[in-house]
Task: structure prediction
Amino acid sequence: MKEFGLLWMVEENNLVIVIDSFTIKSIAMKRLILAMTLLLGSTVIFAGTPPVVNQKILKAFEETFRDPKDVSWHEYENFCEVDFNQDEIKTQIRYDNDGNIIATTRYYFQNQLPPHILSKLKKKFPDRSIFGVTEIYTESDLTYYVTMEDGKNWYTVKSNPLGVLEQTEKFKKAPTH
Result:
C-alpha cells in the first residue's frame, strides 16, 4: 500500500498545505467506496427483513390455508396482505389487524368457476373460449371477471354470484402473422 503525504510549508507566517491530485483522488475514492458499501449493506438488511405479521393474522391464515406455496407478506398501515399459490390458484388476501379477511382476489381457470356460471357463459357465448377468471371479494360484494376470446377479439364478462352476466369490455386482437 502506497502512503501519501501532504506537502506543507510556511510562507510569511501562513501555513500552506499542498495536496497533490493523487491524494485528493484517493480520499474521494475511499469515501465513495465507503458510502457505496454502507448503502448496499443497508439495502440488503432492509430488503431481507420480512414484515412482522401479527399473531392474529398468522393464526387466521394458517388455520384457513393448508400448505400454501410462494407465500409473500406485505404490511400496510391498516391491513396486511398475503400473496400465495394453492391448488393452481393465485390468491391475494387482505386481513385487518384482528385477523379478519376484508378482501380477496383469486386468479384461476374455468374449471374453478361455479358450475352454474360456467354453464351460463357457455350457453350465452358458445363461440368463445374462457381464457381466465379473476374473482374479487370484498365485505360487500363478490364478482367474477371472466376473460374470454374468439378468433378476433378479447372480452371481459362480469358475473355476480347468481350468474347474471354482463359484457364490460371488448378489445380487438392484434393481427398475427
User: Anything to note?
Assistant: The longest strand covers residues 129-138. Residues 21-47 form the longest helix (27 residues). Residues 95 and 102 are 6 Å apart (CA to CA).
